[in-house]
Design goal:
This protein is of the alpha+beta class and 241 residues long. The protein folds into two domains: 87 residues, Zinc finger, CHC2-typedomain (DNA Primase, Chain A), CATH 3.90.580; 130 residues, DNA primase DNAg catalytic core, N-terminal domain (Alpha-Beta Complex). It contains nine helices and eleven strands. The protein has a five-stranded antiparallel sheet with strand order 1-2-3-4-5. Strands 6-9-11-10 form a four-stranded mixed sheet. A two-stranded antiparallel sheet has the order 7-8. The protein is globular, with a radius of gyration of 19 Å.
Length: 241
């Protein structure tokens, strides 16, 4: 088996039907640069293009922020969706059915689900503390005020902020006993491409905690909003949207 419960064969079939250039060009304006294509990185603010796409290798890489990977990695980073979600979406696009096999150990899955829930709850609390911090949350509070978000709404919806740090959440939660693997399973960190370790998925973003019917925090997703390159993120219960 490959990633999650989706077979390697299915993943490779989908990858073979998709051109990363077509996918990336829907989100980034690309221009020819030798054998590759170049554009402004969608994952960090820059004025000079450092984001490249290799049609021959079917990969992307940003020399500015270090982001890189294949078409699945690109869409996962861009949308905040998990790897299986991206595979399923691309599978539907190219007409390949994605069948996920049952887990051999449902008990392990249950334990992991509980761990992910605890990780997301800890992350939500950390984001909220950041917003209340005099220095770390000042710009986010100004942004929220500009958007008409009142104090009572901040409290009601558990609004927080992810600081502009590469490993702020990673350091905070591992210090509480969570492993890097726990954070990766929750979708809160991303594996580094050319070296070991992880870095925070969400940086310099306002975060909204949305509790499900069972009063638990689920996965993490984000969407772009107006005013410069500001982005709003949402902690949503998995499957609720």
């Amino acid at each position: 088996m490959g990633h999650g419960l989706i077979s390697d064969d299915t993943i490779e079939r989908i990858k073979g039907r998709v051109d990363i250039t077509d996918i990336v060009s829907h989100h980034v304006s690309l221009s020819k640069a030798g054998q590759n294509l170049k554009g402004l990185c969608p994952f960090h603010h820059e004025k000079t293009p450092s984001f490249t796409v290799s049609p021959s290798k079917q990969i992307f890489h940003c020399f500015g922020c270090g982001a890189g990977g294949n078409v699945f990695t690109f869409l996962s980073r861009l949308t905040g969706a998990s790897f299986p979600e991206v595979v399923r979406d691309l599978g539907r696009t190219v007409g390949i059915e994605v069948v996920e096999e049952r887990a051999a150990n449902s008990g392990h899955q249950a334990v992991m689900a509980q761990t992910v829930e605890r990780v997301n709850q800890a992350a939500a609390a950390w984001f909220q503390r950041n917003l209340g911090d005099e220095r770390a949350g000042s710009e986010a509070r100004e942004y929220l005020a500009h958007r008409g978000v009142e104090s009572r709404m901040i409290d009601q919806f558990g609004v927080g902020v992810a600081p502009a740090e590469w490993d702020g959440l990673l350091r905070a939660l591992t210090s509480k006993g969570f492993s890097q693997g726990d954070l990766a399973a929750a979708g809160l960190v991303i594996a580094r491409t050319n070296q070991s370790g992880f870095y925070d998925r969400f940086r310099a973003r306002v975060m909204f905690t949305i509790n499900g019917f069972a009063e638990t925090c689920g996965g993490v997703r984000w969407s772009r909003v107006g005013r410069r390159d500001a982005q709003v993120s949402e902690l949503v219960r998995h499957g609720a949207l």
